Structures are given as C-alpha cells and as structure tokens.
Amino acid sequence: MLSKWLPQEEILAISHDEALQSCKEALTILREVGDRGGEGRTQSNLGLIYADLNDNNQALKYSEEALNILREVGDRGIEGITLSHLGEIYAKLGEKERSRQYYQEALKIFREVGDRWEEGRTLHSLGKLYFNQGNIDVALACFLLARSILEEVQYPDRGSTQRWIKKLHENIGNEQFAVLLAQVELQASHIVEQALHALLPLN
Predict the structure, then answer these.
(1) Which residues constitute the domain of residue 120?
(2) Same domain (yes/no): 119, 102
(3) What averages of pLDDT result for each successive group of 10 residues across the chain (203 residues)?
(4) Entry pTM
C-alpha cells in the first residue's frame, strides 16, 4: 500500500492498476486517521498516475486537491513537485501560460529548499514549453541550465536534455545555432528569469 509520496520514477515503475489501487486504499486509511500530510502526498501520487494515463481530468482533480493540502501542512518539497506536475498537465492541454505559471512557482520552491534534482527537471520542462512555442533563445537557456544541474546530480535520464538541445540545433541549422549559443550561454540564468517574469511572454 502506497501510504507515502514516492518519486515519479518509482511510482511509474509499478503497474497503473496496482499503483491506483494501493494509493486509493492508502488514501482511505489516511483520511480515517486524519493524516493530512499523508493524504496530500498520496493525492499527489494519484495525480501523477492519472497524468501518465492521459486522464487529465482526474490528474487535475487529485493534483489540485493535493496542492491545497500540502500548502495547508507546509510540505514545501512535495508542493513544488505537485506544482511541476500541474505544469506538465497544463502543457499537454495547451494552456501554456498557466503551465508556465505552475513551473515558475515550482522552480522558486525547489531553489528555496535546495532541491537541485527537481530544479533541473523543471528547467528541462520549461525548455520544452518554450521550444514548442518557438521561443528558441529562452528554450536553449533553460536546456543549458537544466543540463548543467542534471549532470551535477547525476540524473538518470540527463541525456534527454542534450537530445532536446540537438533537436533545437537541427531545427535552426549550424550557423544560427552557433550565433544563438554564443548569445545565450553566458547569460542563460538572466534570460530565464526575464522570461519567467513575463518580460518575454509566450506567444
């Protein structure tokens, strides 16, 4: 029975049916005993599972309920992860501005609590969001920052960020990429902060 929050990789390694059943059993017990923190963490797990099943309505329902509880109990780390999951869901739904807002909130929390792993993952997700909107300078800045952090923490799928950089490179060609890299590389943090504060809005 999944009565605690587990990392995304561990949750998704379990079959969906098994994970859903276990989380829902845990949720019933946690509510009975009044464990609000456990309830919030378990709802966050459920939101992740439903998102992986592409059931966005259920994913939003559980993730938003989790977010309210996690804020109530002050669980900042899992609050940030839930915000990042909501960013992913809204990105899939095409609500880019809302997605960006959730990612921005998540990133702020990860930096506050020193969670470099999730900071890198969220920057990677932001890079994809900006790339898909054609904001390639911001996308590249996000990917460069994400790559550095994910290499630092030895994130298992850190090669994914390099593949997105390669995709961006191929999309704009060698000459333009070289110019863009020179412009972005040394000021990537500044470019991302400007974008997140809506000085460079998404199209």
Answers:
(1) 115-203
(2) no
(3) 56 80 92 95 94 95 97 96 96 93 95 97 97 96 98 94 98 97 97 79 45
(4) 0.89
